[in-house]
Design a protein that fits this description.
Length: 199
């Protein structure tokens, strides 16, 4: 199997998981996954992010409590279409995955660096795909607010939390969304779908 095919298969089979088994796995495997994020390209080659691994149970409880409070307000203030999507997917402000998953990976970006946000999300993508390759599942979770993580994790003031990634073995097997993927690729101008103009 070629490398490109392998990567595409990882992309196709990856699922966002919100129910995790509490089974632990080797910290060496987790470190390998996180280190993959450090291989990502970044603006000015600065790698403007920090990765924090959480396995302290009390800290996970505190993070979950803050996230649930933030998402309670976020769900209340969301537009109608998003509320309907939450209901359809059975997504509530309760975030059991934050305490059920054996580890949380928190990625924060250094806001003083060029292209810090773009670079951080590329690193996150590397982490998520490598976890999939290792037989583990993830969720790129962004609660309604994350500023509480700054004092909780002793982050320097220039770092903004970007994502919380629970990681572990799945306790659910959701079907991949079949939302409309057509009309997303155009040629030369938005709306132009005729590839023959490239020949």
């Amino acid at each position: 199997m070629g490398v490109i095919r392998l990567i595409q298969d990882l992309m196709k089979h990856r699922r966002s998981i919100r129910k995790f088994k509490k089974n632990k796995f080797a910290i060496e495997k987790l470190c390998s996954i996180v280190n993959a994020g450090l291989l990502a390209p970044s603006g000015a080659d600065q790698s403007p992010y920090a990765v924090i691994i959480i396995n302290d149970e009390q800290l996970k409880i505190e993070i979950r409590q803050e996230c649930e409070l933030a998402d309670k307000y976020f769900h209340t203030d969301s537009p109608r279409w998003l509320k309907e999507w939450f209901a359809k997917k059975n997504i509530t402000p309760e975030k059991l995955f934050l305490t059920d998953a054996p580890f949380l990976i928190i990625v924060a970006g250094n806001t003083t660096m060029p292209y810090w946000l773009e670079s951080t999300w590329i690193a996150i993508t590397y982490i998520v795909l490598t976890a999939e390759e290792e037989g583990l599942c993830t969720l790129t979770y962004t609660p309604g607010r994350m500023d509480f993580l700054v004092p909780l994790l002793d982050l320097p003031k220039e770092y903004n939390p970007v994502v919380i990634i629970p990681i572990g073995y799945p306790d659910e097997y959701p079907i991949k969304s079949e939302n409309e993927k057509e009309n997303k690729i155009f040629f030369n101008k938005f709306g132009e779908t005729n590839p023959t103009r490239l020949s």
